[in-house]
From TrEMBL:
Cofactor or coenzyme needed: heme
CC annotations in GO: membrane
Species of origin: Aristolochia fimbriata (White veined hardy Dutchman's pipe vine)
Family (UniProt): Belongs to the cytochrome P450 family.
Known catalytic reactions: campesterol + reduced [NADPH--hemoprotein reductase] + O2 = (22S)-22-hydroxycampesterol + oxidized [NADPH--hemoprotein reductase] + H2O + H(+)
Keyword Transmembrane helix: yes
Name of protein: Cytochrome P450 724B1
Amino acid sequence: MVLGFCLAFLGLFIAAFLLGLVFTHFLPLFFNLRDTPKGSFGWPLVGETLSFLKPHASNSVGTFLEDHCSRFGKVFRSHLFCSPTIVSCDQELNNFILQNEEKLFQCSYPKPIHGILGQSSMLVVVGDTHKRLRSLALTLVGTTKSKPDYLHDIERTALQITDSWKDKKQVTFCDEARKFTFNVIVKQVLGLEPEEPQTTKILGDFLAFMKGLISFPLYIPGTPYARAVQARARISSTVKAIVEERRSGENYSKKGDFLDTLLTVNTLSEDEKVSFVLDSLLGGYETTSLLMAMAVQFLGQSPPALAQLKLEHQNIRSCKQEKEYLNWDDYKKMEFTQQVINEALRCGNIVKFVHRKALKDVRFKDYFIPSGWKVLPVFSAVHLDPSLHGSAFEFHPWRWENQSQATCKKFTPFGGGPRFCPGSELAKVETAFFLHHLVLNFRWSSEGAEHPMAYPYVEFHRGMPLNIEPIRRETISRTS
Ligand code: HEM
């Protein structure tokens, strides 16, 4: 009798709980339905998140967006990441959202991401804290770029990698590209060389950190998410130890890296400084190596583009002494290379969308976006929109010849507005310099077909194995 009563009570409790879930899930529709774009809210709690995140080739928009855009139009409502959401595949609305950061919209990444990146990460902070961190980032990027060793360090690191291929027949390109971008960024930020033990330690922890970023956010010891949070803590303490070593100052001469400048800044807390270092490492590592992999992948499928790229780099090299380093003038001459990079960014869609929320009720054209709703500008949908880019699904670098500034609205691989990526130029220089030594010194072919997939974080399943063959045998390593 008592057991029956308990079971009935439990049943009622569960039913009430489920009803509550259903009610809260659909509640926003009762208040805000008027004029919001058409769409569907999916299942209570998860909404349409699982279909939205369903993996697809990164040079396609995926079935979820195809289906929803054809049913509801380029802007539609949905329920994603536990919030009522407006999804925008419309270039003008995307641009409006990015330009109105902190006025009408605000960066709003899901809470589990805060757990991994840390509360002071530039990607998650908003308002004055973001302004403070960002202005420092821009100053650092500006001063680092003007240093004479900036380009030399990048090229020297590229040569270390390509020199190590001399006796190999096959390389896993994604691993090699990661090694390259990681070595460049640890040198720039912390002044560390690849062979130093701290570099290996940070790299090991970073790999765990990256796996956690793309995992299910469940903090149970042993899960990738929990391992990532722990890896972040370990990277923080390694960085703190480096900071302390510098502060104590014995035998220390300035290395001219980010950390030197960071240590002289009084406007940041200790935590913010460590977060700043982590942001730079994180931002400068995976995305750039993916861009390199995309460029190599697409070039492999387009012999005319590869031939033109090679010619451009042969011309640049022919005007230089044998072991002379590349400089800014050479970089400016890499016009077709820039077109290849742009096209790899457009087709590869390394960052598919960004997270925002509406700070107030917003009306844009016919659309009403209620205050508090999540807003997702989807860049890949604009990059692959056939009404904006002719033969949108084809890799065609020549489309970027003589493009004007108006292109910016339909091409946002680095975001836009007050959160535009501060590392965009570094990523392009790294890719251009690596391509320079790759096309001049190697022939390559892919070992089996492989399509980069958007999970939505882009990944090459097999890491892109390449069969390589050196073109010239003479040594190209140089001293600074
Ligand atoms: C191909 C390479 C890269 C791509 C595609 C890329 C893409 C992006 C995008 C789309 C954003 C905007 C995020 C948002 O609006 O919510 C962003 C922000 C950011 N990126 Fe990059 N990025 C790349 C390389 C880099 C590099 C090399 C660094 C650092 C050295 C970097 C550091 C950052 C930082 C710190 C932010 C936050 C900026 C802010 O919130 O004000 N990124 N990146």
